[in-house]
Specification:
Low-confidence stretches: 1-36
Strand content: under 5%
Shape: extended
Helix content: over 70%
Length: about 400
């Protein structure tokens, strides 16, 4: 019986709910902890928070946002030159990446492949300078030496003498020339023009060197940069984004490599033709045709026009032969060479390519025309693989 009574007492104790803890109070104030008192707030009770739905708050914050966005746009505009150089370097690095991958498949390491490709680019660039600069310097020297004889022959011509007798052209031109040379402002303007030309040449050299250095850096760390960008995407979507990004890089690189291959074929064929016809400066003209051929849609036509004009200066027969050659070659390039080279790189409809090239040229000039078509190909890939399937599922 004693054991049963002890068990009942234990059961009653277990069934009794525990008393709730009393509210912890501040012993000094006699009120719950965390409650503001007059002794804690020497400057009174705080008021209500600002109404974020009020017109004053919305207008003030909106004005600050507009000013911040405007200043950011001005900052980007001031950095447009630097951003252009970075864009050119990135575009060249992506274009050279397929060549690096080919060398890697042949057994070379990534670093050695990048070094070989970059050395080849430097050799091509140096060869272009070695072929063009001496010719330009020699032609400028010949023009300077022949300028007095040319002016003397013009003065001796009958129609120039008649115009001088009737209107005093030569005497008036001589008088104005003496006045301008005696004027200090003319001399300063001439000096400023020479200084500006020197600054332009120096700026072009610095920009070229910067692009080469950035291209080498981007080419060596292209995959590292791409992986860093992929890590900004959530892990659940990262594999698909990586697949799309690698395909975009492959298409852009393939497009650049294919365009360079087509332009190179055009330049080699032009050099052979000009050498057979004994046209002067055949190497310089061929390199010019190759460089212009990289520009989509209109580059090859511009190169052909330049070569035809040079041929016409030699003789009209040579000009006609060159024109007929380019008419035939353009058809061969458009329907045989380019489709076979570009079939595995970029697939962009003709109308889209034309619109993209015109828009890119209007926005960024020659650079915009160069990068417009691969960017259009990337946008089409995203639309085909992401946007259209999502719309079909809805």
């Amino acid at each position: 019986m004693a054991q049963q009574s002890e068990a009942a007492d234990d059961t009653s104790k277990l069934g009794t709910p525990a008393p709730e803890p009393s509210e912890v109070t501040d012993p000094s104030a006699g009120q719950p902890a965390g409650t503001d008192t007059d002794s804690d707030l020497d400057f009174g009770q705080p008021g209500k928070p600002i109404n974020r739905q009020g017109p004053f708050y919305i207008g003030f914050v909106g004005a600050i946002g507009v000013l911040l966005a405007w200043n950011l746009l001005k900052l980007v505009a001031s950095l447009s030159g630097v951003l252009t150089l970075v864009g050119v370097a990135a575009f060249l690095a992506i274009g050279l990446d397929p060549v690096v991958r080919i060398l890697q498949r042949r057994g070379l390491s990534r670093g050695l492949s990048v070094a070989v490709v970059f050395l080849g680019v430097l050799l091509i660039f140096g060869g272009f300078i070695a072929a063009v600069v001496p010719t330009v310097i020699s032609q400028a020297g010949e023009l300077t030496n022949s300028l007095p004889d040319t002016i003397d022959n013009l003065r001796r011509s009958s129609w120039i003498q008649q115009l001088d007798a009737d209107y005093g052209i030569i005497s008036n031109a001589s008088t104005q020339l003496r006045q301008r040379l005696s004027d200090g402002g003319t001399v300063m303007s001439l000096f400023g023009g020479i200084l500006g030309a020197g600054r332009a040449v120096l700026s072009g050299f610095v920009s070229t060197f910067t692009v080469l250095v950035l291209t080498l850096y981007f080419l060596a760390s292209l995959h590292t940069i791409a992986e860093a960008g992929y890590r900004m995407v959530p892990a659940s979507r990262r594999p698909r984004v990586r697949a799309l990004g690698d395909e975009i890089i492959r298409r852009i690189g393939g497009y650049v490599a294919g365009q360079v291959a087509v332009a190179t074929i055009n330049a080699v064929c032009t050099f052979i033709l000009l050498t057979i016809l004994d046209v002067p400066y055949s190497l310089v003209l061929s390199i010019t045709v190759g460089i212009l051929g990289i520009i989509p849609l209109v580059g090859a036509t511009l190169g052909a026009v330049i070569v035809v004009l040079v041929g016409l200066f030699q003789s009209w027969q040579v000009g006609v032969i060159i024109a007929i050659y380019y008419l035939i070659y353009q058809q061969l390039e458009n329907y045989v060479i380019a489709p076979r080279i570009m079939s595995r790189t970029v697939s962009v409809p003709g109308a889209v390519a034309l619109i993209a090239a015109l828009a890119g040229a209007a926005l960024l000039g020659v650079l915009g025309a160069l990068i417009a078509i691969p960017i259009a190909a990337a946008i089409l890939l995203v639309l085909q693989e992401v946007a259209i399937p999502r719309q079909d599922r809805m």
